[in-house]
Amino acid sequence: VLENAPEGSVVLSVVASDRDVGVNGDIAYQFSQAVGQSPSAFAIDPTSGEIKLTKPLDFEAAENHELSVRATDGGGLSAICKVLVEVVDVNDNAPELVVSSFSSPLPENALPGTVVALFTVRDRDAGANGKISCALEDQLLFSLRPAYKNYYELVTVSALDREETARYILTVTAADAGSPPLTTTQTFTVDVSDVNDNAPVFNQTSYTMYVRENNVPTALVGAVSASDADVGPNAKVTYFLAPAHSAERPPCSCISVNSENGHVFVLRPLDYEQVRQIEVLVSASDAGSPPLRANVTVRLVVVDENDNAPLVLHPAQDSSPPSNELVPMSAEAGYLVTKVVAVDADSGQNSWLSYHLLRATDPGLFAVGAQSGEVRLRRPVTERDAVKQKLVVLVRDNGRPPLSATAALSALLLNDFSDVRLRHSSLATEDEGGSLTTYLIISLVFVSLLFLASTAAFIARKVCKRKELKGGHVLYGTGNLQSSLADAAPAGTLPHAYCYEISLTTGSGNSE
């Protein structure tokens, strides 16, 4: 009997015969004993002897049933027969999958062949219906491997990469060989844990930053940035300056890098004329164990500022006595007198120089080339022109704001270059005469001041003494006069005695 036979299905009919007649020949059927299965699963018709199912059979519970049927006639005589019912299996049970162990998360550096899960499969059906096959759906990195009897292992077949796939959802299908086959699926969710297998990566292969010279200290000039494909501490990036070689110190102490955000600072003012470019190596390191790092070159370009005035090389400005340029009286317009040569330590347009005539004894006689610095005659020389011409040339750069310097030079107008010695001696005499005149004027002023000071001191002294004498009177009598004067009275010179009141200055008695 098929195990899926419906309730009420006739299993068989039991037939008994009795040679008696009448009541003694009437036969009734009943179960006398049931072996291996409760009689409730079967029912027998007492008249016809048909055995029917009272409920579905289960092959997995009992593969056969033994029934004992008793046939009794009306006279009380009976006979017994045994009925053996075999249950035919039907594929009514799907396979069962039982997981014994499962590992998740799985490190991404797990070796091929690492066991992820161990499980067993079984099917309660028999024969072909109980034969099971397992399969893993659409996976190249994992596979199923038979372990022992009905045990299977879910293993890796190649290296994993968390940065490519952080989670795998694996579906295992178990199917029996029944018709139609029944299946069971089991899902395994495998998370891949991170391993520090990725070094930081800069978003540029190199960096170029610019800073103007004479910058303020700790000026921010740019930033470097690196990212790490890992997660957690393995992805935390810090920045620092690295030496060009492991045994060297950082090449420049004027640059600093913020370890957290990669900002690049210049710590002190730079001078374009001393250093125009600085290259440093910046490292980005993660916090993994062991840490991984990457390096990038940062090129710092110093931009020139107009902080240097032009320097005059010719004619020399510190020579004593200054040199003189010789110009023949026969020179025509355009004659090259000299050339002012200057340089500027700056670069670019800050070093472009232009030349201008600032002052001259005769401004109409000379012209200066704005770009070349050549000093030429604007017109022919005439007899009315002074022999010695003094010029001041302004040299100016093209910076913003522009800086400038001046070049002073002299030109001697000569009839013949053979007169150069005479001209030089006469000019020297003129210079000496001018110096002597200056000395004489200074001496005269000094003597005049000394005379005025002496006169003022003498007058002040006289005034002070006069004020002192006006304070009292001096009375002279005969007792006070000199003896020669007193003796003159008896001689008749002074017949009478007189008293004189005289005001005298100091020393007048001696002069009398």
User: Judging from the principal axes of the Cα atoms, what is the shape?
Assistant: rod-shaped
How many DSSP E strands?
34
Q: What structural class results from the helix and strand content?
A: mainly beta
Strand order of the largest sheet: 7-9-12-11
Largest sheet: 4 strands, antiparallel
Number of helices: 3
Task: List low-pLDDT spans.
Answer: 472-512
Task: Give Rg in angstroms.
Answer: 68 Å
Question: What would you say this structure looks like, in words?
Answer:
With 512 residues, the protein is mainly beta. 11% of the residues lie in helices and 38% in strands. The protein has helices at 420-469, 483-486, 508-511, and strands spanning 10-13, 27-35, 42-44, 50-53, 64-73, 78-86, 96-102, 106-107, 115-122, 132-136, 142-146, 151-156, 167-176, 183-193, 201-202, 206-212, 219-223, 226-227, 238-242, 255-257, 263-266, 277-285, 293-303, 311-314, 324-328, 336-339, 341-343, 353-360, 366-368, 374-377, 388-397, 404-414, 475-476, 500-501. The chain is rod-shaped and about 200 Å long. The termini are far apart.
Give the arrangement of secondary structure elements.
Layout lengths: L9 E4 L13 E9 L6 E3 L5 E4 L10 E10 L4 E9 L9 E7 L3 E2 L7 E8 L9 E5 L5 E5 L4 E6 L10 E10 L6 E11 L7 E2 L3 E7 L6 E5 L2 E2 L10 E5 L12 E3 L5 E4 L10 E9 L7 E11 L7 E4 L9 E5 L7 E4 L1 E3 L9 E8 L5 E3 L5 E4 L10 E10 L6 E11 L5 H50 L5 E2 L6 H4 L13 E2 L6 H4 L1
Describe this protein with a few key phrases:
4-stranded antiparallel β-sheet, mainly beta, 3 helices, 512 residues, rod-shaped, 4-stranded mixed β-sheet
